[in-house]
Amino acid sequence: MPRFHERRVQQLRGSSYVITLPKEWVEECGLRKGSAVTIIADREFLRVVPSGRRLTFQLAVDADLLSDLMEDVVIACYEAGVSSVRVHTRQGKAEELMTRSRRLRERLQGMFTTLESEGSITVEISGDPFRSVEQALSVTLQSLVRALRRVESDLSAGRNIGPELEDLLKDCAGYASTLKRMVSQMVAVPDEQTPFYAISALMEASSNMAYLVREVEESVITLGRQELASLIHLAEVLDQLSGLVVELRNSVVVDQLMDLVQTLREVGRKAGPRPLLRRAEDLMRALIKLNALMVIASEGRTGQVSHGPTWPSTT
């Protein structure tokens, strides 16, 4: 849990202002006199983190208590930015835990599992595979487009869902989890280009991406040929969106995002999987808000957006 400390600002003779660091925090981080720290200054917030060190969170999990929920808990830890999860069992079922964790490795990027003893395994998670949140958004959307186009192909040919589509959906879920993990880590250690006040919009966007992926996974089972046209349009919209998200810091993107929202609503009025379309619109609305906040940061403004988005009428 966070601990709050109040400090008085001091001033060195004629130059810098200084505050002292809490002793217990310094000791917990293994710092000492002369250690380097990184100071993150963001409007009204100031954070201090040890320099040159990957943020690590460790968690112990009791598999006996969790039973069938073990995989869900590991995924949740992954998405929350935890770097090490120790899973133990009193029933000597570590080999079974290893088998179950190996299935997760197909979904979770950078996950490695080690058998510690007959009663425990350790799940270690390495660095993120993406250079930026924008890249993670784009890659996840591209994977969704591939999955939807595979569904189109199967529906057109009258084929049932095959292993290729299942693999594509696993990729979608894995990329969505990696995106959530990146955003969770940015809460503690943001990058230099993302303002603190944009983190909540990033979290909303990453959550909506995960909801969209889950809706695709659930919808492909019930989709029929009558929804084929709307599925094609949705894939086209998401394909365009995957190109726009890499430019989220550009003010001209908002008009194109609004056009995509209108296009999606037109598809929904005609026919189509409405829950799936609503999830896609929720994602785009979150990205529009994120774009507005990114533009504020990139243009160095401290006030509100002067030309904020005007939402299309829902009627």
Which secondary structure elements does this structure contain, and how are they paired or packed?
Elements: E1 10-11, E2 17-18, H1 23-28, E3 37-42, E4 45-50, E5 58-62, H2 63-66, H3 70-79, E6 84-88, H4 94-105, E7 111-117, E8 120-125, H5 133-157, H6 163-188, H7 199-219, H8 228-244, H9 253-270, H10 274-298
Parallel strand pairs: 5-6
Antiparallel strand pairs: 1-2, 3-4, 6-8, 7-8
Helix pairs in contact: 5-6, 5-7, 5-8, 6-7, 7-10, 8-9, 9-10
Description:
It is a single chain. With about 325 residues, this protein is α+β, with helices and mostly antiparallel strands. It folds into 3 domains: about 10-50; about 60-125, Translation Initiation Factor IF3; about 135-300, Methane Monooxygenase Hydroxylase, Chain G, domain 1 (Up-down Bundle). About 50% of the residues lie in helices and about 10% in strands. It has 10 helices and 8 strands. It has helices at about 25-30, 65, 70-80, 95-105, 135-155, 165-190, 200-220, 230-245, 255-270, 275-300, and strands at about 10, 15-20, 35-40, 45-50, 60, 85-90, 110-115, 120-125. The strands form 3 sheets. The chain has a 4-stranded mixed β-sheet with strand order 5-6-8-7. The protein has a two-stranded antiparallel sheet with strand order 1-2. The chain has a two-stranded antiparallel sheet with strand order 3-4. Strand 3 (about 35-40) and strand 4 form a beta hairpin. Helix 9 (about 255-270) runs antiparallel to helix 10. The longest helix has 26 residues, at about 165-190.
